[in-house]
Amino acid sequence: MRPRGARSRRPLSGPPPGRHRDGGRGFTLIELTIVLLLIGILSSIAIYTYRMMINKARMTQAKTVLGHLTKTEAIYFTEHDAYTDCVVLLDFEPVRYPYYQVSVVLDNDAKNYLGIATGVGLMVGDRWFVTRDRDPFQDNTSPFR
């Protein structure tokens, strides 16, 4: 036992140990609101980043399809001394690329071409181009820049 007149180790002000502010246990409404707000901000950033990564993956598909088109056009040109605008003659499978539809526009008596990958489905509005120089570039008006 403690001798009479000895001081207690407990501070004189503030809540007793194990108690929270007004005597009850738990979190205040403001603390819960701040935590929910932070979770909301972090989740919106994560969702935005995820969508951007998905769009970049689809745009990589456009670059891939145009790279494949460039290679098949080069092979066709070596065999026929002209380019073609018929993707069936190129043994090209546009079905493998579900987000882009491929077309070819010939120029200079089939000695030059412009390959166009137009977005379909979720990628509507996106357009990519490639020439025989093999450098795909995106349309400036694309919403996925």
Protein described:
This protein is α+β, with helices and mostly antiparallel strands and 145 residues long. The chain has one domain (29-138). The protein is built from one helix and four strands, in the order αββββ. The protein has one helix spanning 29-80; strands at residues 100-107, 112-119, 127-131, 137-138. A four-stranded antiparallel β-sheet has the order 1-2-3-4, covered by helices on one side. The longest helix has 52 residues, at 29-80. The model has no long low-confidence stretch (mean pLDDT 83).
What is the topological layout?
Layout: H1 29-80, E1 100-107, E2 112-119, E3 127-131, E4 137-138
Antiparallel strand pairs: 1-2, 2-3, 3-4
Features:
single chain, four-stranded antiparallel β-sheet, rod-shaped
Low-confidence stretches are none
Output the number of helix runs.
1
Task: Write the H/E string, N to C.
Answer: HEEEE
Count up the domains.
Answer: 1
Measured between the Cα atoms of the first and last residue, the distance is 77 Å
Note the main sheet: 4 strands, antiparallel
Quick structural gist:
This protein has one domain (29-138). It has one helix and four strands, in the order H-E-E-E-E.
